[in-house]
Amino acid sequence: MSLSGKKIFVTGGSRGIGLAIALRAAKDGASIAIAAKTADPHPKLPGTIFTAAKEIEDAGGRALAIQCDIRDENQISAAVEKAATEFGGLDIVINNASAINLTNTENTPAKRFDLMMGVNTRGTFLTSQAALPYLKKSSQDGYNPHILMLSPPLSMKGKWFKPHLAYTMAKYGMSMCVLGLAEELKRDGIGVNALWPRTAIDTAALAMIPGVDVAFCRTPEIISDSAYIILNRSGKECTGNFFIDDEVLASEGITDLDKYAVVPGTKEFINDLYID
Fold first, then answer.
1. What residues pair up with 146 in beta bridges, in sequence order?
2. Among 196, 187, 200, 205, which Cα is nearest to 271's?
3. How does pLDDT run across 228-252, given as a tens digit for each residue?
């Protein structure tokens, strides 16, 4: 397996899971565009598009830092075009950018609702849409294109809606894009899949949720290693799936996951949302 020569567009990749996926691809020498909002250091969050680009280059990849508000369709189309022009096309899109606000209906302001829908559902749809001409060209040239969403398996159980209806709607919107695009793009040979962690992942976003002990979490590398496996599969055959990270690894014979534990030796982990 190798992503050598692949041209990759990652949304929200200045830190966390998006950056981890980018760094894994960089080890193979891939070209990676980081499209994210943070160009200047944030007082509460680590990393910018520029620090991410340096890490990618240090890991062996080619990097392009693009400041982009994923809620703005003009910025999305300009970012995708810039990456495709710089790299000579696009082979992979990682829809990683996401906004989270775990509040019930009564306590979700319209501004937060709009943010989650704008980033998660709308941003994923428009980024995928903007990349389609380049991904179709990649398929025609035999480069095995993929779209990967960091979104959960769809479940209509009320327990996933009750505590945080707006967030669930926004994340499920990303997953609905998987369902629709996988069928729509099947004849084009573009693989469209979702990937979700079984356990909570130690990221900056998680740190903003009160009461979560990262000692019972795994690192973003379990997601990046799982994504690497998916992106190396044939998009013509591997599409429309809602993958869980440990199941992807197990399919390749990787069952010892201790290296992904924030605290090595931990046996009990916090289940992520949408995982029974």
1. 92, 191
2. 200
3. 999 999 999 999 999 999 999 999 9
User: Is the separation of the CB atoms in 219 and 202 below 8 Å?
Assistant: yes
- Is 134 labeled as catalytic in the residue annotation? no
pLDDT tens by residue, 94-128: 999 999 999 999 999 999 999 999 999 999 999 99
Name the catalytic one among 134, 143, 167, 260. Answer: 167
**CA neighbor of 120 nearest in space, from 99, 103, 134, 141:** 99
CA distance 52 to 112: 27
**169 vs 167: CA distance, rounded Å:** 5
Residue 10: beta bridge partners?
34, 94
Burial of 121 by CB count in 10 Å (0-12 exposed, 13-18 middle, 19+ buried)?
buried
The pLDDT assigned to 251 comes to: 97
Tokens standing for 106? 């009564």
- pLDDT, tens digit, 9 for 90 and up, residues 25-66: 999 999 999 999 988 887 777 789 999 999 999 999 999 999
